[in-house]
TrEMBL record, chains A, B:
It comes from Halobaculum roseum. The lineage of its organism: Archaea, Methanobacteriati, Methanobacteriota, Stenosarchaea group, Halobacteria. Gene3D superfamilies: 6.10.140.50, Spore Coat Polysaccharide Biosynthesis Protein SpsA, Chain A (3.90.550.10). Residues 1-26, 108-149 are annotated as: Disordered. InterPro entries: CofC (IPR002835), Nucleotide-diphossugar_trans (IPR029044). It holds the Pfam family CofC. This is 2-phospho-L-lactate guanylyltransferase. Pathway: Cofactor biosynthesis; coenzyme F420 biosynthesis. GO terms for biological process: F420-0 metabolic process.
Length: 242, 242
C-alpha cells in the first residue's frame, strides 16, 4: 500500500476552541488552533496521507480545501457521499486539534489492523464479543477504523465501506463502532493515546507541553505557558498568572 | 516468547484513590480500587504476564504478593534490585488503576516494539531525534518500554535492563525515557489510550463507563453512576445527585 490515502481534516476558523476561552483570547485561540492544524497536516503527510482541509470558510493555506459551512456531521457525510469510500479508495477523517498526533500514530490508522503489534487473542475493540473483526490475526485493514478520544469522541476515522456515515456527538465512537458492525463492516478500535488526546480545555494544554513537538507546543511556550506539578495531575501556568 | 513475564502491580489498600474523595466514600473508594485491581490482574494474565501485587499491607487476595510499606519509588526499586531484570528476565510494573487495560494493550508492552503495527519511519518516542532505539524496523523488544499516562505519568513499564531504576512523580515518563537513554538502553514509548487512562478523579470515571468492560465498570453501574453528555466533555452523574 504505497498510494496516498485521502484524509479530511475538519476545521472551523470562525469559532475556534471556545472551551479555551477562559485561558486564551479569541485571537490567541485562532492562532493556537492554526498551529494545531499545521501539526496535524504535517503528521498526516508524514504518514502517507493526502490531507484536505474541510473548512467552514477559506483558510488561505497552501493546502487543498473544501469549503462547507454546514455542521460537522453534515459536512463530513457530504464528503463521504462524494468520495464513495471502498477498499481501494479509503477516506480518513482526522480532527484538527490532535496536537500530539505523529506519523507513526496516524500510520496505525491506515492498518493493517490485525494485531497492533500484539499477539494477544482478545479484541479490545469489542468488549461485548460480537465483533465482525476476526480477532487478532487478520492482515487486512478493517472496513472502519476508529481512534476514540477522551470522553469517547471519534478523533480519527478511516472508512473503506461505502455505506458508513458519521454522527458526531459526545461519546460518538461507541455509536460509530456499532453502526459499522450493523452494516456488516469489519471494525477496528485503534488504541492510541496520541490520537485520543484532542485539545479542548485548559488542562489539555499540559499534554501538548509534555508530549507535543510541533507548532502547537512552540506556540504555547512562546505564549508563556509552562508545566506546573502540584499534588494532583500536572497542569499549566502562564507567565503573569496569579 | 511464550514464557510468562513477571509483572508487579503496586497497590495501597490503606489510602485508596484520595482524589476521588469528593465522589466516593472511603469504603467505596476501597471497593472501587479493589475492582480496578481485579481488572488489571485479569488483563495481565490474559496478556501472558505473571502478576504479583506489590502492596503496602496484605490484601488477602489469592494472588502472589510482596508487602512493602515504603513509598512507591523505593518499593519498586527494591523489587528491581531483587529481580535484576535482563533480556531473558524482564520485569513489568503496571499501575493498579488502569481500569481500561486489556490483554491486547498489555501485550504491546511486552513487544516487539519495532513498529506498533506501523510502517512509518518517524519514532514517536523521540521528538528530539536522539533515540538509541533504531527507528521503526527493529524486531527486538526495547530494553525499557514505557506507556505514559495522561499528565505524563508512567502508567506501565517493562524493564529488560539491569541498571534502570524508577523515580515516580508528576510527569515521570519523560524522565524515565531520558534515564533509560542515559544508560544506553533502547527505549520504546508505547502509544496506548487504554494504558494512558489511569483513574484518579471524578471525570475519569466517564472513561470507565465508556470503555471499561470488567469489575470496575460493573461496580460504577451498580453504584448508580451513568454518563452525562452536556456541552463539553462527557461526565458522570450518580443517582441521587443534584
Amino acid at each position: 500500500m504505497t498510494d496516498r490515502v485521502d484524509a479530511l481534516v475538519p476545521f472551523s476558523p470562525d469559532r475556534p476552541k471556545t472551551r479555551l476561552s477562559d485561558t486564551l483570547s479569541p485571537a490567541e485561540r485562532r492562532d493556537f488552533a492554526d498551529a494545531m492544524l499545521t501539526d496535524v497536516l504535517a503528521a498526516l503527510e508524514g504518514a502517507g496521507f493526502a490531507p484536505r482541509v474541510l473548512t467552514t470558510e477559506p483558510t488561505g493555506r497552501d493546502v487543498p480545501e473544501t469549503v462547507d459551512d454546514r455542521p460537522l456531521t453534515e459536512a463530513v457525510n457530504a464528503a463521504l457521499d462524494a468520495h464513495d469510500p471502498g477498499p481501494e479508495s479509503p477516506l480518513a477523517v482526522v480532527m484538527a486539534d490532535l496536537a500530539l498526533a505523529t506519523p507513526r500514530a496516524l500510520a496505525r490508522l491506515r492498518g493493517p489492523h490485525g494485531g497492533d503489534g500484539s499477539t494477544a487473542a482478545a479484541d479490545s475493540s469489542d468488549p461485548a464479543g460480537d465483533s465482525s473483526d476476526p480477532a487478532g490475526d487478520s492482515s487486512d485493514p478493517a472496513d472502519v477504523a476508529i481512534a476514540p478520544g477522551r470522553g469517547g469522541g471519534t478523533n480519527a476515522l478511516l472508512v473503506r465501506h461505502p455505506e458508513f456515515r458519521v454522527d458526531y456527538h459526545g461519546a460518538s465512537s461507541l455509536d460509530h463502532l456499532r453502526a459499522a458492525r450493523d452494516l456488516g463492516a469489519t471494525v477496528h478500535e485503534l488504541d492510541s493515546r496520541r490520537l485520543a488526546t484532542d485539545i479542548d480545555e485548559r488542562e489539555d494544554l499540559a499534554e501538548v507541553l509534555i508530549s507535543g513537538d510541533g507548532a502547537a507546543r512552540d506556540w504555547l511556550v512562546e505564549a508563556g505557558f509552562r508545566l506546573e506539578t502540584g499534588d494532583g495531575r500536572v497542569t499549566v501556568e502562564r507567565n503573569g498568572d496569579g
